[in-house]
Amino acid sequence: MIILIQVSPRIAGDTSREHDQSRSSKGSESFFANIIKKSFKDFSRSNQIDECEESNVTVNGHLIPDRVLKKAEKQTGPIQPGQYWYDIRAGFWGVLGGPCLGIIPPFIEEFNHPLPENCACGNTGVFVNGRELHQKDLDLLSGRGLPSERDRSYIIEISGRVLDEDTGEELDSLGKLAPTVEKLKRGFGMKFPRAAA
């Protein structure tokens, strides 16, 4: 038995239009859905990269992750890639193996790593905050009143306050070491000098 169904042209047209609309709306829906899905994938991938991506900055021998570096730069100013040492007590900083190149605020939490005593390749026998001074640093600080006798250790603060580390005796102040940095509570950055690059 065969059943014949007659469909009027008006109904057939409506059905095909509905089918076309359904297909086009599905197409646009899937197009937008794919864009959204792709955006989420890209976002999630970029977050994974950001979290894993390391900067090319080391401080006191420790690699500083990019997100931590960005946080620190709010206090230090811009930091160029390089290997640096940082004196957390006074804010002195330099390129690993060299003299002090500047002062940024002290006590930057993101850089709170032990300062290697030989980080400046000093050979003076005079230590400041655990670092053996490079000759250039000793010349500058002794010009401000720091005793220059060998085999001595001092604690120096950004305010210029000096303590003999062995006796605890407070010595004459060196005067404010970086009044602008102290006032602004922000440094002017850390950059690799051209000669060292």
UniProtKB/TrEMBL annotation:
<protein>
    <submittedName>
        <fullName>Extra-large G-like protein</fullName>
    </submittedName>
</protein>
<dbReference type="InterPro" id="IPR040244">
    <property type="entry name" value="EDR4-like"/>
</dbReference>
<dbReference type="GO" id="GO:1900150">
    <property type="term" value="P:regulation of defense response to fungus"/>
</dbReference>
